[in-house]
Amino acid sequence: MKKATLKTATAMALVGAISAPALASGDSGFYVGTYMGAMSASNTDRLPAHQPSNPGINADDTKVKGNFRSLGLKAGYDFNSMFGAEMRHSRDNGKVENRDQGLAVDHQTALYGKIKFNVSDSIELYGLAGVNNIRLKQVGFELNDNKKTINSFSYGVGAQYNFTDSLGANVEVMKLSNHKHFDAHSVNLGLNYKF
Fold this sequence. Notes:
Layout: H1 2-19, E1 29-43, E2 65-78, E3 83-93, E4 95-98, E5 101-118, E6 123-139, E7 149-162, E8 167-179, E9 182-194
Antiparallel strand pairs: 1-2, 1-9, 2-3, 3-5, 4-5, 5-6, 6-7, 7-8, 8-9
């Protein structure tokens, strides 16, 4: 089921990126940006079969979850006033440990399709949907032990205030991963510069 969702999201992002230039208008153009985020992530895995269970520890006690900081760059292209595509890469800091389990997030790379709605000349709302590749190390769990990457469908919503035709500031809420063994979401603040 997850593989089908991932394939569908990838296909939608690629079809949008290939076909949308035909819809190009005067609002089209490249942009670059930077963002910083506060990310919350956790696992939903089981302890290894060989690890003895402790009757005094419940499932919540063995879950590793924590908060991480992200600093990223993005580059995108607006095909017109409604549709665009965007690629992102971020470095993430933070490591948490709980008993014999640990979680560290290193970096993320994502490709999104974008749909926008202009509220006014200065304010726009937008939605993102695509695929996110998260590099992490999670140890002490049955299925995720030493797993290096997780690919997942990712989506979010945001709002941008444009100071000029070129410079804008945005805030977003993102679901970075809905993988069955890894959950992550973030709140981001960013700046975009459009050429």
